[in-house]
Amino acid sequence: MVPTDLAEALAEAGRRMDARNWVPGSAGNLSARIDNGRIAITRSGVHKGRLKASDVIAVTYDGAAVTEGHKPSAETLLHCQLYRLFPPVGAVLHGHSVAATVLSAQGAITFSNYEILKAFGFATHEIDVVLPVYENDQDIARLAAWIEPLLLREPPIGYAIAGHGVYAWGTSVEHAFWRLEALEFLLQCELERRQLT
Amino acid sequence: MVPTDLAEALAEAGRRMDARNWVPGSAGNLSARIDNGRIAITRSGVHKGRLKASDVIAVTYDGAAVTEGHKPSAETLLHCQLYRLFPPVGAVLHGHSVAATVLSAQGAITFSNYEILKAFGFATHEIDVVLPVYENDQDIARLAAWIEPLLLREPPIGYAIAGHGVYAWGTSVEHAFWRLEALEFLLQCELERRQLT
Amino acid sequence: MVPTDLAEALAEAGRRMDARNWVPGSAGNLSARIDNGRIAITRSGVHKGRLKASDVIAVTYDGAAVTEGHKPSAETLLHCQLYRLFPPVGAVLHGHSVAATVLSAQGAITFSNYEILKAFGFATHEIDVVLPVYENDQDIARLAAWIEPLLLREPPIGYAIAGHGVYAWGTSVEHAFWRLEALEFLLQCELERRQLT
Amino acid sequence: MVPTDLAEALAEAGRRMDARNWVPGSAGNLSARIDNGRIAITRSGVHKGRLKASDVIAVTYDGAAVTEGHKPSAETLLHCQLYRLFPPVGAVLHGHSVAATVLSAQGAITFSNYEILKAFGFATHEIDVVLPVYENDQDIARLAAWIEPLLLREPPIGYAIAGHGVYAWGTSVEHAFWRLEALEFLLQCELERRQLT
After folding, report:
1. What's residue B74's pLDDT?
2. Pick from D27, D47, D194: which is nearest to C116 by CB?
3. Which residue in A has a C-alpha nearest to residue C193's C-alpha?
4. Roughly how many angstroms between the first and final C-alpha of chain D, as a whole number?
5. Contact D124 B101 (CB under 8 A)
6. Is the ipTM of this structure higher than 0.90?
7. Angle at A55 between CA A49 and CA A57, to 5 degrees
8. Nearest residue on chain A to B193, judged by CA atoms?
């Protein structure tokens, strides 16, 4: 049901995220758009750094598993939302880095004048870019509903959930990883900057 | 005496802990339950990141080596205690991370509102979870005896020994590693948070 | 057009930089001198940690692609300048480390009494060495023109662009990597030193 | 001239040190005792993380290369001294970690109550252990002469050279690496502790 190349691309992205310590335990989730009706997403309860092809399952845009018995990621609706709202999005990666978790728990996050901001399509580094931080909520449907107008009003470079982690997306799994890598780089810069005495 | 698959699982966990710099020198120890009478545990005086099958030996629940001449880990009784008190426990991992060592020497450790806390079975992130910090003691039997009522009264998500490191456990070696990974992630978040100016 | 060994050396340097998290996303660029008329440089828009031979293209000393349709790195002129000004230079590496990005955004950077400074040809450690920090500028030609007299007046051990990253060079790709590694080591030391309370 | 197994053990130790970023550029040096008359040590000007068998040469206890034309490490006399003073020493490893470099430049270093101190033969963790910090000196013969009485009076667990790095030793290359690993762990703990706000 899930194209082999897509499952392999997600497994590889998971290994790269694991190498950076962004998917501790069974945390994090990765997805990619299959077509107009289905999304490939990691199953719940597996280590995202050691994914097998069978750990990537197909879900509908409503977040329901296509195959009975499959248990998709608890955060599936947050992925589906991005594919629904933004047609160019081909993949979504969610990880838990120390920087993202610590900073998002502190409050607002703004990146100012970093060259790396150009990775998100900005033409210049002379800019202040806000990374939205949303309150965490165990009711994912409620969280997604609350986020939706915010995403539409001002499409962000990604977003963080307080004390939780970040969501990044791109046109493909590879492109999404570049965006996640750039975002985590910015977060690490901010963390280190805020530790200067 | 030690099932091959169990020895290999422990050797692999040791390599993963070593990749994170959690087993410097000959520090740390790893174990898994074999059956009602025996536990597999790493020998004393070997590097836990480079374990051979012969470095994993069998001990009784009293911590005595099953095969004469084998020298089990100095901290064997701390492992045995967990298997005895908590029947679901299938594996116990003890490592020395910088975060665990530095924070445990500072005093009490509480994790508040971290999403990753759900890795320990909590239903929500809106919670304050204490990681017990026990005073270090070279007399392991005495330390185990002192810890026992504390473990029974309020089974923790794991525990730290001051200036020493952490103990984490799970239903299998893989599950124990996820729990250790999540615990070390929380400790690293706390360390970084306490370094913000 | 680009000698195979040179392309492979650059791809390997890119992997080593990626292993250190110095080339997030498509950031960074690497080059090597081919001969009096051409320079090999990484294409724009590729991940420098996963370079294929076809990702390394030839440009003239004016920064123009030798083969039509090739899109060289946006920062090509900064590389060409170094080859033009300093005949011994055989390779130039540009990366984005967290330390370089954070410190360069803070202002001036001076390394005092570090033994590693000897990697740059100094005979002693008892010395204060300035790492120039230049203002970032999206107009690379303008930036190169502004830097040129500064480079000539006092050839530095490398330089940083504020909020961006560092440029390091050497007589070969391997030697340039050693210089970059030493420079990043110094930057990390400074970052940690400035975080002491 | 240098036994193959010894050269390979040193090359492997170099790779492990490089994986920890302890040998930036051509910094650091590694040695092992061959017999009563000769020591195997890394050549000057090579990357210690990528040693070939030919990069490990034999020197006498006076630090002179056994084979004409070989250029031993600039710091050879510091290695020879340890073999001469302490018969049990079988290997000496010198690396440049960020923690060692930053802390040694700050002044005295004392490790208090760390469990890992037992890696150096202490029976308890309830102890304060000083890591000697010697002033850096480009005249290695003079530095060695100055250190000698200090080493004899109170044989340390290792030592640091200010703004430079650490020396660690053991009965074999493997044992020396364990000691270096434990020492670097302690230094990293101290660095992080001193960054707490």
Report:
1. 84
2. D27
3. A196
4. 54
5. no
6. yes
7. 130
8. A102
